[in-house]
Amino acid sequence: MVHPKFECKIGKDGKYYFNLTSKNGQVVLTSQGYASRSALYNGIESIKKTTVGKGNFEILDSVSGSPYFVVKAANGRVIGRSEIYNSQESLKNGINSVAVNAPVAEPEWME
């Protein structure tokens, strides 16, 4: 079984990013770009803290009208975004997955 993790990488733009993956290996949250490795780690810690108890999730609608969610830090900044879902039930499952997996996931650097 795959364990939840924060897959960390440097993007083509030189910024640092993470994807939170669930126990089945599926990406459930993607970060904003960070200027440094330390800022990335701060973002991961913020996700771990803000998702406990399912706090700081905001549900939005895409241009096509399909739902997605963002996770906000205590200061109100968006620190992660979900995929776009086909239904409200799938969206709720995604939020649940982030709330369950983020607190126990550890960073892992990808090539």
Give a description of the structure.
It is a single chain. The chain is α+β, with helices and mostly antiparallel strands. It has one domain (5-109): PH-domain like. A 7-stranded mixed β-sheet has the order 4-5-6-3-2-1-7. 25% of the residues lie in helices and 32% in strands. The protein has helices at 37-50, 88-101; strands spanning 5-10, 16-21, 27-31, 57-61, 67-72, 78-81, 106-109. It is built from 2 helices and 7 strands.
Keywords:
PH-domain like; 111 residues; 7-stranded mixed β-sheet; alpha+beta
How are the elements arranged and paired?
Elements: E1 5-10, E2 16-21, E3 27-31, H1 37-50, E4 57-61, E5 67-72, E6 78-81, H2 88-101, E7 106-109
Parallel strand pairs: 1-7
Antiparallel strand pairs: 1-2, 2-3, 3-6, 4-5, 5-6
